[in-house]
Design a protein that fits this description.
Layout lengths: L4 E5 L4 E7 L5 E8 H9 L5 E5 L4 H10 L3 E5 L1 H4 L9 H12 L12 H33 L3
Parallel strand pairs: 1-4, 4-5
Antiparallel strand pairs: 1-2, 2-3
Length: 148
């Protein structure tokens, strides 16, 4: 079994994996719990590991990249056209693997831990600002109801 591209559809607890060989034929279909994913992929020879750029993909990309795999993260909207039939996790993983082989596909660079931390801080601050604004608007509306 020679895996050229491994497509991973990340789930909350269970991930779907589809491995393609050099000609694009499916040679592996498997579902793994998230905690066993690193061990399984770590035992594979270096290959292209493709995922949608979503929650947890950057961390997993850093870990698997350190194991020698080439990481390709894609925006989910670019993967959607490659889903062949009704959407499910296994078909999504196959679509991810197929999309990663396309020469015109645009990939998202894997964020470092520092970049992820800064983004988390910016998002937390943005959320606090919007909650503060909503609270101020709510209080203003209550005061207007009382004639103030």
């Amino acid at each position: 079994m020679s895996i050229f591209v491994l497509g991973i559809d990340l789930g909350k607890n269970v991930c779907s994996l589809v491995g393609l060989d050099e000609v694009g034929a499916v040679v592996l279909r498997r579902r793994l719990r998230r905690d066993g994913l690193e061990d399984f992929v770590g035992r594979l020879p270096p290959c292209i590991v493709a995922m949608e750029a979503c929650c947890g993909a950057h961390h997993l990309g850093r870990v698997l990249g350190a194991m020698g795999h080439a990481i390709r993260l894609m925006s989910p909207e670019y993967v959607r056209p490659y889903v062949k039939a009704n959407k499910n996790d296994d078909r999504d993983a196959e679509a991810i693997a197929e999309a990663a082989t396309r020469p015109t596909m645009r990939f998202v660079p894997v964020k470092s831990e520092a970049q992820s931390d800064i983004q988390a801080l910016h998002r937390a601050r943005s959320r606090l600002v919007s909650e503060r604004t909503a609270l101020i608007n709510h209080l203003r509306a209550l005061l207007l109801e009382r004639g103030s």
